[in-house]
Design goal:
2 copies of one chain form a homodimer.
Chain A: H1 4-12, E1 16-17, H2 26-33, H3 49-62, E2 66-70, H4 73-88, E3 92-95, H5 100-103, H6 108-113, E4 116-119, H7 129-133, E5 141-145, H8 158-171, E6 174-179, H9 182-189, H10 193-197, E7 202-206, E8 217-221, H11 223-236, H12 244-257, H13 261-276, E9 281-284, E10 292-297, H14 301-315, E11 317-318, E12 324-327, E13 330-336, H15 340-343, H16 346-364
Helix pairs in contact in A: 1-14, 2-12, 4-11, 9-13, 14-16
């Protein structure tokens, strides 16, 4: 029987988890505030040194003229696309079928901005240059998500992005980067954030994924673009009197974790190999290109759940708190490697995967 | 000469300010977190005990079935009006000409929701029953703001609200309460929040005005309404992974300051009388009905600014950091009485106003 709660409970009771930065508890915020002067003034409606200095820092890091702090990526990206559509007088954009805006935002882009989407590529593969060249409709903007999260965090060749960028500039199509996990892909491409962002007209980055902050996002581009984004930020209800709890935590964890992205990537390579060592388990991508990947089981969710729960109880190491059904005979979950992985004993981890492999084999008899 | 910076600087250098709760610095957040268990789990996309318990507490306080926490009132109110417009299939609402949605939100209601506004009353007076009865257009919803902030925080008779409520129910018009300062008006009406809210279909309250939190809002109504508001919250980009910095501070300062609203109101009565004791100064309302009022000078901003700056330097008591030009011969500013007022010596304050009166008289010679 399917007992999703059982798996989550068993996961929560483990002493170690292979994914992430640890629990999202209040300590995360408290740590970020600890060394901040009590008398530091908060930001007021987008103004004040606290928000302005962080925006300047991120604009420089991303190699863009200006950057604006937003409460969420959902808000930042709808606004970016709206600005590019208004510029061209064409309410049409193109992106991957599993783009965040298409599947996770209750159709905000359509319901609030009346922008139509053109879906590039099939949903189980990356957007390639040919998809852009063969696009049958005119659009104001193309959004590329690097890495493509919903298919395990895959990445195109860097040359593909360069060619798409050149094509878009030639054709007067704006190129927007969904860089929710931009920090996480720098080690694989061996590029700076600014180098990658130079291929795009606008870019959004997030501070609660690899960075590990509380929430919040940055939208960057040229000054005309960011000035307009501030007007839309107010319209959306995102121009809060104070955003400093998110800004301070974004800044704190950026300083702490941005430099660890190569470690997270190397750890993801190792962890994915552990998963792939089990006969009926495989990762997508097979060899990760960032700190993330998806783990697929050739067995139903109902079969795998009790096996994992048992494994957690025996080893006190948690692999995932949930499983998503793919077909009736397969299921998957997502891994994002963070600070937790380094805490684990690799010897212990090896045993965990041997045990997992045994249990999975046994269940197939 | 006009030197707005001079006034603000002089204000910031005073030891005491007659308005507000004190500086909006990081201490405000730190105080709210101090007694929260580090291991307390944060909210995740609107779920978790932290957000759910606060929503339940506020629903009960407001006498509504359900309540939803929002990052901002701008977002909450646009969404409330959108839901009522969709329900009726009519994108038209009525409110005061100086409604927050009309003048402070970059036309988000129109630009994002394509909702037209019908302006009730003249901008320098309250909406009365006759304005509603004589409304020439059909609308889906009427928004009442209690108190009407932009005209000094005036309030209609309670009977007027009751009559408007009855009329709206009879005519199938939804009534929404902009309760940004709802807590602040309870002492004047001698009603509970739930009693006032019972006259409305939906209500928004704010946590960083009289309450003194960091940011955040609650939208309350029946379950069908709040369920739909959550979908729109996601569309707006307001369904953050974690809103707990705002929720924890809202809860902390609600517990601390909600009970002090009568004190703030009494203090506002006293402070307004001090202002009115100066010959060329008057408050709107003349006798406050909440913790807020506007102070009007019968002199230009250019005349009053140096007088105030001088007064601050001599007394170290600050009355305002800005002046707004009303006409070429008059200017005004807003007062919101909070915790700062109780700290002040009333004897000292009396001297400050005697000195102000002298300085203003002298400048008119």
């Amino acid at each position: 029987m399917s007992e999703p709660k059982l798996l989550l409970e068993a996961f929560k009771e483990t002493n170690y988890q292979v994914s992430g930065h640890g629990k999202r508890d209040i300590q995360v915020l408290k740590n970020a505030l600890q060394k901040v002067d009590d008398k530091q003034e908060g930001d007021i409606y987008g103004n004040g040194s606290l928000i302005e200095e962080f925006q300047t820092k991120m604009a420089k890091y991303l190699g863009k003229e200006k950057a604006v702090f937003f409460p969420s990526g959902t808000m930042a990206q709808q606004i970016a696309l709206r600005i590019w559509c208004d510029e061209k007088g064409l309410k049409k954009v193109a992106y991957h079928p599993l783009c965040h805006l298409e599947i996770h935002e209750e159709d905000g882009l359509k319901e609030l901005h009346h922008i139509q989407s053109v879906l590039l590529a099939d949903k189980d593969r990356l957007i390639e240059l040919a998809d852009v060249l063969n696009m049958y409709e005119e659009v104001a903007c193309i959004l590329l998500e690097l890495p493509q999260r919903e298919i395990g965090g895959q990445l195109p060749d860097y040359e593909t992005i360069e060619k798409i960028s050149t094509y878009c500039r030639d054709k007067g199509i704006r190129l927007h980067l969904d860089g929710a996990r931009l920090f996480e892909i720098l080690p694989y491409y061996e590029k700076t954030a600014a180098e990658i962002c130079s291929l795009f007209d606008s870019v959004y980055v997030s501070f609660y994924k690899g960075i590990g902050g509380v929430a919040g996002a940055i939208l960057a581009g040229d000054k005309a673009f960011t000035d307009e984004s501030k007007i839309w930020k107010r319209r959306h209800g995102g121009d809060l009197i104070s955003l400093y709890p998110y800004i301070l935590s974004a800044n704190y964890y950026f300083d702490e974790n941005e430099q660890k992205m190569n470690q997270f990537y190397q750890d993801a390579l190792e962890l994915a190999a552990f998963f792939n060592s089990c006969e009926t388990v495989s990762t997508i991508p097979l060899i990760p290109v960032s700190n993330m990947f998806h783990v697929h089981f050739q067995a139903s969710r109902e079969q795998v759940e009790p096996i994992l729960a048992e494994l957690y109880a025996e080893t006190s190491i948690g692999l995932t708190g949930y499983l998503k059904e793919v077909t009736q005979k397969s299921c998957c979950f997502e891994v994002n490697v963070g600070n937790q992985y380094a805490i684990l004993s690799k010897e212990k981890l090896k045993q965990v995967f041997q045990l997992l492999d045994e249990k999975l084999r046994k269940s197939q008899v």
